[in-house]
Amino acid sequence: MSFVHIVTILGMIPLFSMRTFLPAFLAALFLRYPEYFPGMGNIISPAEDTFITKDWVLFTLGGLSFVEIVGDKSTEIRNFLKDAETYLKPLIFFIINLDILDEASVEVLQEVQWAAFDPLWILLLFGTLAVHWLAGLRRDFITFLEDIDEDDNFYISKISSWLEDSLVLFGFLLLIWLGILMVVVYALGIAFFVLLKKRTERKLEQQKQACPNCGEMNLPFAVKCHNCKTPQPEVHQIGIFGQRKKELISNLEKHRLHLASHRKCPDCGNKLKSTKLFQKCELCGSTLFDSPTPKDFISYQDKRFYKLTGVSFLLGFIPIIGFVISAVLANVYLFSPYRRYVPKGKSFLTKIFIKFLTFLFFIFGIALGFIAAPVYIILRYFIWKRRFVQSSSI
User: Which domain holds residue 360?
Assistant: First the structure.
């Protein structure tokens, strides 16, 4: 086992933890056509004897990479696959690296046997487990982004997805140019992310408040203790990203409705996983929408709708920017609170229609935003409101 073996396997670990098929396609493409990669024109390709560089494998990996890149831009697909990827990525990593190092590198690398046992297997096993661990870390990060901006109103998930695509491409090029540097750079990046994750978790724990009755720690915007159901003396407001605000609430019922709009338990503030309306909170056992009821929630959203429609009319006089601001505000405060309670499968066609509607109204809103913005909000609001009513069977 040579130094090149070690760098190749270690360098592939972060790439496969971010994408399943794209690094495999890049590796196959490099082995088949090294002359098309900058600075690699003098390498003779061992493509003929390598499984992953066969035409049908290249086309398959290329197609899967394209589907992967496009699919990852959809929050529904991304969240659906995030658990399965933690197992698929290590498997593909193992298969690809085994093929590269056992076949493609035979002509250029020397194998080293230690007591009739190839240490390559130990390194491959380490790499496979490392990919699994990093894929799990990425899954936690996606969940974290979902908690902040579940419906991607601020395009946080899309930006992070494009950033991952860029890192995989950049990382692969860095691997073939300066392999050891790439390993060091990604190791430092992963260490930074782990520390950031630990810091965020620690900060969240520090924000929790002790119940004056039983001493259990509760979220800062919890109305009642999740353990003994005692009303909490200090209840903080919740921000648009689901974070704690410094200000204390002044209207308890409005705060409970605001928690429900984030799909959080109106009593303990715990994040609810299901889209069902009358689900039980896993933490405190309260039933969602027993109080406040779905009708109370719709009334609360209607008041927001009237205010924001008026604001959008005024903002519409600002060309382009006014329409964009109106659309973002409407997504956050009007559409997402309903959308969070509509099953993903049922909302897919609705979202496609709405994307088409958004495009048309954006073109219209360039010149006549004061008309386009309110009409756009009205149409979208009643589409999602209708979906919510159908789900709640009001």
Answer: 294-392
Distance CA 232, CA 130 (A): 43
pLDDT by residue for the chain (394 residues), tens only, comes to 455 556 677 778 888 888 888 888 888 888 777 777 766 655 555 545 667 778 888 889 899 888 888 878 776 677 667 777 888 888 888 887 776 655 444 443 344 344 444 566 677 788 888 888 888 888 777 777 766 666 676 677 778 888 888 888 888 877 777 777 777 888 888 888 788 778 877 887 888 999 999 999 999 999 999 999 999 999 999 887 777 888 899 899 999 999 999 899 999 999 888 888 888 999 999 999 988 899 999 999 999 999 999 998 888 888 778 888 888 889 889 988 998 888 765 555 566 666 666 666 666 655 566 678 888 888 889 988 988 888 766 5
287 forms bridges with which residues in the sheet?
280
Instruction: Please say which residue of 145, 176, 204 terminates a domain.
Output: 204
Determine the Cα–Cα distance for residues 268 and 256; give it in Å rounded to an integer.
10
Alpha-carbon 183 to chain mean position: 25
> Minimal CA–CA distance to 328: which of 297, 365, 300, 294?
365
Cα distance between residue 93 and residue 52, in whole Å: 12
What radius of gyration do the chain's Cα atoms show? 26
Q: Does residue 382 share a domain with residue 325? A: yes
The Cα-based distances of 8 to 41, 93, 171, 262, 322 in angstroms read 19, 11, 12, 44, 50
Tell me, yes or no, whether 303 and 318 share the same domain: yes
The count of domains in the chain is 3
Q: Is 126 in the same domain as 39?
A: yes
Helix (H, G, I), strand (E, B), or coil: what is residue 315? helix
Residue 286 tokens, joined: 């309260």
Q: How far apart are CA 150 and CA 273, in angstroms?
A: 11
40 and 88, same domain (yes or no): yes
With tokens 């503030």, the residue in question is: 269
